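Final paragraph of the annual report: two paired records, presented back to back.
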Amino acid sequence: MTTAAALENEDMPPRVLVSMQGIADLAHVRRPVVSMWRRRFREGQDAFPEPTRGDGPGLMFDASEVARWLEATGHGNNVDASADAAAVATPAGLLFSDPAHVEELEALVVLQAHLGPLRGRLGSALLEAAMQVDPEDLSIRTEVERHVSGEHDWADFADRVIDAAYSPAGALEVIARRSSAAAPASGPAAPLSDEAADLLAALVAALPSRTAVIDDGIDAPLGVHLTSASGDDPTIRLGSGTHTRRLRRRMMALGVWVSDSDHRTGAMHIDRLPHQPKDSDAVALTTLDESALQLGADAVSVIIGPARILTDPLQHRERGIRADALRTDRVRAIVRLPAGLVPGSTREALALWALGPIPADVSVEDRYTAIADLTDTMLTSTRRTDLVSDLIACMGTWQQTRARAHRFMSLQRTSSLRVRTGSLVTRTPARTTTSNAHELAARVKDAALALDNDRPDVNVIDEPNPTAVPPASLTDLIRERHARLIPGTRISPDDLGPTGLRVILSEHLDNPTGIGDVGIDPLIYAANYPGSQPTQPGDVVFRTGPTTAAWVDQAGASVVAYPARILRIRRADPGGLIPELVAQDIAAQPAGPGAWKRWKLRRVPPAFVAMLRDVLAEIAASQARLEKRLARLNTYTAALITGITAGAVTLTKSHPDGDTVTAEES
């Protein structure tokens, strides 16, 4: 820390260094401009400063020398370069990629906000001040002690960063921005997008009467955003995790009062899972279960985390822990959120749980949980407002939940969610009521009568079918081995030609009449693609993007080119699937990478699978005959009009008595 020798040289602050990119940021120019300055001003009175040795990789320069050069020569676009230099510079030994270094620098900034300028103060004075500011060691005391016992002195740099950022709060934002750039987080630790942060902030703002409790999984930037949503005079309570210490420092710099009360009644908890990036799914779910158990009697909670643990299918152990959380009867709503809410981890889908008071006036078997799947829904401001209203109603009384006309939610028995092995947000189809069954039967009968002689040879009995089976997710059907997913073959364009084995391309699914125009030589196919699987009769060829499309290959023996794929239905046990019906359902499903995992497919009773396929084949044959007849009629119409207008033919009309009359005679 500060020594006697350092005090004798108090007018000479420790040197701080800046990289080439830092110089560009300081001068408000692009990085290549700095390289041009170094080449153009190598010599002379206005020579660009020489690089100096530093701890970081690449060339490093004295920040003060660079700032003076910019101001003296008038280069760049920042007249306050000397004042702003600390915002882009780095003192000796400091690594913004090292969390411990960042914590120490932040602690010094907070200490300066309470103590005044730190430069020239002895380490013992800083320690004494830290104990007074943070007697319970909740924010800065440990970090200041660690810094004082270390080999570097960053106190002067902390003063300079505050001056450059105009305030301690601004300095902490600069430090956070530079540490994030030096060591960007990924996966579960990656920051949430603005859309996700705004959703949580809107939930906090919707319940201003409750104390906002920012739990251990919320990082400092998100915590500050949630605090700003709590109103002009927020009451905030924080947890005790690693994120919380950093957030407390931000709150202290902002002057926000933080409550240390353990009283949980009336609170609104906000949390994110997992608390640590290294936490396993089981640990994260255990944290979720404990949060539900420890929630106050009339408190509410919103927990956001990976959809893979909050909504999606799980292994037996993890599924049991999640079921334990559901057994608390505190889970009032479960929402799978839109994709893209974690920019630093594009594959990380999020979900949200809303917890509220136990509906004591409702029997256990009659308790419901609201669910929603917004995976393919863009979260606009209007939809976010509606979703927040849905969630607030769900966290209230049972009467409030039932009374609201939910835009996104559907109610499912909580008891059914506990034992569900698939996705929690998959809606259980409602049983067809008697009135609906009669209406549907009448529609079938009317449609058959309208066909007249074109109706298929099948008897439709007007009575409900007790063996009807509900739709099922494609993921569950594959897991239960009713269907199999086969990837398409990555075929080189050089191997394709007009003849050979039929090749189905992804674009062919938009217009199946083009199937057969592209082929591949059987010998080339066997030699270059030995692991490829051609289609079998009845396979469904489909794609997931940019739009969904599907086609049933009735003949088989086709080669499917990537990115198209094959869905093969098991003949011995199709699980109620019919290829033609599956193709129709796929065309109506949402598109996108991995979207097929959330598709729902209709099924028919197993006893009617073969019969319905025969009927559909007969209808398809009738449609083909009618299409050919329509094409012939269209050809005749065009030829007739052309012939008459060109004067090439003459029209005659036959009378019942057999006489022929020309157009002129009529």
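The closing record of the year follows.
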Amino acid sequence: MTELLAPAGNMDALKAAISNGCDAIYLGMTKFGARAYSTNFDEETLKEAVNYAHLRNVKIYVTMNTIVFDDEIDDMKKQVDFINSIGVDGVIVQDLAVFNYIVENFKDLEAHCSTQMGIDDLQGTLLFKELGAKRVVLSREVDIQTVKQIRKQAQIPIEIFVHGALCVSYSGNCLMSGLTGNRSGNRGRCIGSCRKEYEIINVSQNQSLGNHYILSTKDLNTIDYIDQLKDIDSLKIEGRMKEPEYVANVVSRYRMALDGTLSKEDADKLNCTFQRTFTKGYLFGEDKKNITNIDRPNHHGYEIGYVSNVNKGMVQIKLSKPLNQNDTIRIRHNNEDIVLTVARLYDQNKNYISSSDDTCFIQLKEKVSLQDKVYKTKDIRYYDELSKLCDKEYRKYDLDIQVLAYPGCPLIINAQSNGCTCSYESDFILDYALNNPTTKEQIIKQMSRLNDTIYQLHNVEFEQCDAFIPVKVLNQARREIVSLFNQEKTNQKQHRLLNSNGHKSITFPTKRPYLTASVTNKEQYQACKEMGITEIYFDNIVRRNQNHYEPKEGPLLVGGYGGLYEYRHTNPIISDYSFNVVNADAIYQLHALGVQRVTLSYEMNRNHIEECVNRYYQQNNGYPCLEMIIYGRAPLLFTKYCPLKKLNQCGKCKENQFILKNGLDTFPIVSHEDCTCTILNGKELNLIDEIKDIKGVEAFRLNFTLESSEEVKSVIKQAYESLNGIEINSFNPQTDTRGHFNKEIV
């Protein structure tokens, strides 16, 4: 059966999701979740959430899908231990350290691969199936036919997003917020850089193409394609930052769709809570140029009419859909929005009215024009309806009882419900009935008083006898039976088996540090070669999210798990920065998978590197083999979407250089042959002078993107000078007394 997976940022949203028919909930705790600005759950509220959900046969998955630094590993393990102890069903992870801790220590706690891992092909899916994952969340860029092929061939449960906000970048492959705003998306603190307005400039022609929300995607909506989704294991709704009414609205619509009861009117209700206009997404073949809404980045609402007259501060609105007092509307005027709550609504005689579905008047200080469109962003009456749906029981579970009542004996009731059985025995000894023995109808009357529970009385088996059962005894029996069932249901997963494996050390000999380089064209390649660099990444790069693999010779710079699976037995592999490696455990796991050298994340500073190498040494009595990028324009995001195509500049990337500009910051656009693109940081990272202070790293990479041959040679010369005199770039954690570094790398 297809699982409907709903978001919950707090307990109210969780109840709203369960009240409207979800099968599972995903939520985060106060640490290690990719929605750090959501309310989230602490230990007490998480335990409450698990009990509430499990009682109603709803599963709970906790998101721990951030990268984890070495000084956080102990806290991470404690959190997983707690999650396991209270019966959580699964954990959604990005970092290999978290993934492996779960897989190697807990048999019953499922590890789910987050979309942050960037898995979008069969190879990546097979790798994590081999490693012990119980579910893979595929990238939002995968089309439905490929999803089904992967599921069929990999034979592992697959989860996909079907509704809600989209990232313009492949998830886990966006550094824009972290490197430009100091709030890492991989740490759950994304500032929404893609939702900002940018000017797009053709630098080659010195031509501005205007200011647009060029990276702001529409919201995903696949409800019209539900029949094609029913054989996918889990359908995920985005929205842990959303209000309970949003959750109730979206979950209820998709529940109706899966159950085959959705009408056109029901589907249209998805417009009534937050949405940035909708797209069917890459999942169902949306044209790349239609994946974004470049006019505005926030709630769009839906059109309800237009301005038909303006007279001395009174604005007449011709309506196509009803407008109520206290609704929130926006009026689009000269490409700007006027947003207001309708405190007072008038008819043509200036009388107060509570609602209108034809023509109405509002007072407005701002200037508007005839034909300005009017949108409703909040329907107060519909929100009132949704509020009532946020805390109700979606289903009641049948309670079957067998009542044994004999004079001189205690009352015994055997009960079955919701997959559990229990038996109640009273302390009270039943008496003979002098006149009127207790009847079956009287038992039904008392035992059916279950309105404040999830149960409803179904079958009652009772053989009439001469016993008298006091009403208070029946009431006590009912309450205790409910309590016994609740305890049994919530305790089912709280006794979990542990699975512990040994640790085999993996170490590498220390070497004198050297330079590597990544280049984007033949001129840069030749310049690197002339300057004596022997390890150059050019045609031996296997990008993350590339998912088309051909036989290659020699060492490869691999960016994703699919490429790692494809080439690990045929080629020497250097893992790229896009694995988001920030701790010793993740380095170890990549080495164990055959990676010969691990490139550290852009998000590490010198403190992090020292702690990482120190911890690796302590665990393995030797060093890892590490690479670090010390120069170049960092790739801020990698996207399947092309902003140039959106502005009808398709193909012009071959002759022109385009940039995005926001204030003083610029971001070059690099277009690839497959029409994907990378947005670069306009500011160059340059840590060449810091090489001597960065210990434990073997290879220092120079990342060339837009540089000329002369600039490439100049940078390499500077890097060689910095390397001079360094023999072995490592330290012994047991004797090194330099202390911690203070200066950050990024």
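Residues 397-490 form one domain. This concludes the annual technical report; the extension proposal builds directly on these records.
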